[in-house]
């Protein structure tokens, strides 16, 4: 039987709850579709850090490289480990080391979900640059603790990095409704963002079938609230994409519904699938986290692995469950109830 080997990293807080949920849905889906998922769980997390002084072992990246994909829950337990340490010790190095340069985040209302907006029909695919830009990690601090203290954090935009994410955006737009919105802040940031706009214009000549528009990030934030139905594919830099996708999650009814895929389009290393939400320490281990974002992310994993029919079936099962009112009222249904509702809808 065809078997995929999956590295499972539940991480911290509700990461464990939602990863368990996603894993059980994926197992059922795989079984009924004639392939197997062989999971290997890694306890890498803030608890692991407290024990070992590292978020993952020194050879963690090399260990993960052998897998077909990575399923991740959430990382962060700020009461014990600063977020700047935990995220730079696990999530962000994986995205960079495995050249997962395209972070794909779909934003649309699931059936039955009441979003905060009047708009009911929108279907936005945010594509976030995921390896450089504002998250490059280039910088430093000097004169620490004195009045002369200075902190510098440099955004790095390379032609390779910008061109490949924009190309990815154009391709996605081509495969959808043919519209690409490229987001910058080139009226204020005159080097990197003008560079991004120029590359957008250059590439648009190669994609005459895609209608491309450039927006400033502030205007895009407003548009996502006022006219989300006018958007198809939205492509943005790392930080801008981060912010816009929390906004995207909000307009789709909350972070419990926002899925994401960190894709290495060249397939030179494994891709990683995780919900947009964090570890939510306040509700950790209570069994009330919404697993829909994680389950949807798991469907994106199967899609990436080539099991497109199963991915479509899982998303249809999520939709069937939410249409019946399961998982759509914040805090009402337990994680297990939602998971079982989706599994029931699968068969
Ligand atoms: C996300 C998260 C991460 C990010 C954090 C936890 C570093 O907010 O995946 O959106 O900013 O990329
Ligand atoms: Mn985020």
Automatic annotation (TrEMBL):
It comes from the Bacteria. InterPro entries: ICDH/IPMDH, IsoCit/isopropylmalate_DH_CS, IsoPropMal-DH-like_dom, TTC_DH. It is found in: Cytoplasm. Gene3D superfamilies: Isopropylmalate Dehydrogenase. Keywords: Lyase, Manganese, Metal-binding, NAD, Oxidoreductase. PROSITE patterns: IDH_IMDH. GO terms for cellular component: cytoplasm. One of its GO terms (molecular function) is NAD binding. Its EC number is 1.1.1.83, 1.1.1.93, 4.1.1.73. Residues 5-342 form the Isopropylmalate dehydrogenase-like domain. It catalyses: (R)-malate + NAD(+) = pyruvate + CO2 + NADH; (2R,3R)-tartrate + NAD(+) = 2-hydroxy-3-oxosuccinate + NADH + H(+); tartrate + NAD(+) = 2-hydroxy-3-oxosuccinate + NADH + H(+); (2R,3S)-tartrate + NAD(+) = 2-hydroxy-3-oxosuccinate + NADH + H(+). PANTHER family: D-MALATE DEHYDROGENASE [DECARBOXYLATING]. NCBIfam families: TTC (TIGR02089). Has multiple catalytic activities. Apart from catalyzing the oxidation of (+)-tartrate to oxaloglycolate, also converts meso-tartrate to D-glycerate and catalyzes the oxidative decarboxylation of D-malate to pyruvate. Belongs to the isocitrate and isopropylmalate dehydrogenases family. This is D-malate dehydrogenase [decarboxylating].
């Amino acid at each position: 039987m065809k078997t995929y080997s999956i590295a499972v990293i539940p991480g911290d807080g509700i990461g464990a709850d939602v990863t368990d949920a996603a894993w059980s849905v994926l197992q059922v889906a795989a079984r009924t579709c004639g392939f197997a998922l062989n999971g290997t769980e890694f306890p890498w997390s803030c608890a692991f850090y407290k024990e070992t002084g590292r978020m993952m072992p020194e050879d963690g990246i090399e260990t993960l490289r052998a897998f077909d994909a990575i399923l991740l829950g959430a990382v962060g337990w700020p009461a014990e480990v600063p977020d700047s340490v935990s995220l730079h010790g696990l999530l962000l190095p994986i995205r960079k080391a495995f050249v997962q340069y395209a972070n794909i985040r779909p934003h649309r209302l699931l059936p039955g979900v009441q979003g905060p907006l009047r708009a009911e029909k929108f279907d936005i695919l945010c594509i976030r640059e995921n390896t450089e830009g504002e998250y490059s990690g280039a910088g430093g601090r000097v004169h620490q603790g004195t009045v002369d203290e200075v902190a510098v954090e440099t955004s790095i935009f390379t032609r390779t990095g910008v061109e490949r994410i924009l190309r990815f955006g154009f391709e996605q737009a081509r495969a959808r409704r043919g519209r690409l919105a490229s987001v910058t802040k080139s009226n204020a940031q005159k080097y990197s963002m003008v560079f991004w706009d120029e590359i957008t214009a250059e590439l648009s000549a190669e994609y005459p079938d895609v209608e491309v528009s450039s927006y400033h990030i502030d205007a895009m934030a407003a548009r996502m609230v006022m006219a989300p139905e006018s958007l198809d594919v939205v492509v943005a830099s790392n930080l801008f994409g981060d912010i816009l996708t929390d906004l995207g999650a909000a307009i789709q009814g909350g972070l419990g519904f926002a899925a994401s895929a960190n894709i290495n389009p060249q397939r030179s290393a494994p891709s990683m699938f995780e919900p947009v939400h964090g570890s939510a320490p306040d509700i950790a281990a209570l069994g009330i986290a919404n697993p829909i974002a994680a389950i949807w992310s798991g469907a994106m994993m199967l899609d990436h692995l080539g099991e497109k029919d199963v991915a479509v079936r899982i998303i249809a099962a999520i939709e069937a469950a939410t249409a019946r009112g399961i998982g759509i009222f914040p805090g009402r249904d337990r994680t297990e109830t939602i998971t079982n509702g989706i599994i029931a809808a699968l068969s």
